[in-house]
Design goal:
Blueprint: H1 3-17, H2 32-42, H3 51-73, H4 75-84, H5 88-97
């Protein structure tokens, strides 16, 4: 007789009677949703805003303003370029020839 299956049966029986660890509690603590909502309504940020974030938003707004001012100042030139060109290739060549 092979003693291995008998040992396996004993191991399986011991494993079945071994105490199991308690299951982890996955529930949120009491009043968790109320506390999170209250912090959000109060404007309490979980982290401090970065100064680079503030500067980058301002720089994008400034770049957009400069672009709009440049388009406004050169409206006549751009309008003439786009209205007198017969084909897109002519428009490209005319733009490349001008200084």
């Amino acid at each position: 007789m092979n003693p291995a299956p008998d040992r396996w049966q004993k191991l399986a029986a011991h494993a079945a009677h071994a105490p199991r660890p308690p299951a982890p509690d996955t529930a949120a603590p009491p009043w968790f949703a109320a506390r999170v909502t209250a912090r959000w309504l109060a404007g309490d940020l979980p982290f401090a805003p970065s100064p680079w974030e503030f500067l980058s938003v301002r720089s994008v707004a400034l770049a957009a303003l400069v672009m709009l001012l440049a388009l406004t100042a050169n409206y006549d030139l751009l309008h003439d370029q786009f209205t007198h060109a017969d084909q897109p290739v002519d428009l490209l060549l005319a733009a490349l020839d001008e200084p």
